[in-house]
Design goal:
three-stranded antiparallel sheet, 3 strands
Length: 112
């Protein structure tokens, strides 16, 4: 299956960006959230409420189970570039997959 010159150039660009992004990457999702506790006389249940946090939480799948780990501020600072790298790689891979689908659909369309 042949790609048009424009699509071939896009493939080359995306694969070069993936190669340039190579390095450590962490899977999963990073969320920063605040929430109330279970103590009824705590400040988080007052009016106005002041919830606990913010807490950084890293969620991922391990052997088919969801695992969440709370990160310290130092861990968040150290891991943030790894989360950013993983996000960039996922975006590039999605772009590569979309482009591949376009090439396949273009190749399977009969010419008039």
């Amino acid at each position: 299956m042949e790609a048009s010159p424009a699509r071939h150039a896009a493939l080359t660009r995306i694969t070069a960006q993936i190669a340039a992004t190579a390095g450590p990457a962490l899977p999963g999702t990073l969320t920063v959230r605040s929430y109330p506790c279970g103590k009824h006389d705590c400040r988080c249940h007052a009016d106005p409420a002041r919830w606990h946090g913010p807490y950084a939480e890293w969620t991922r799948k391990i052997n088919g189970k969801t695992v969440t780990r709370r990160l310290t501020p130092a861990q968040l600072a150290a891991y943030q570039p790894l989360f950013d790298n993983a996000k960039k790689l996922r975006a590039l891979l999605a772009e590569l997959q979309d482009l591949t689908m376009e090439i396949i659909e273009e190749a399977s369309t009969p010419e008039p």
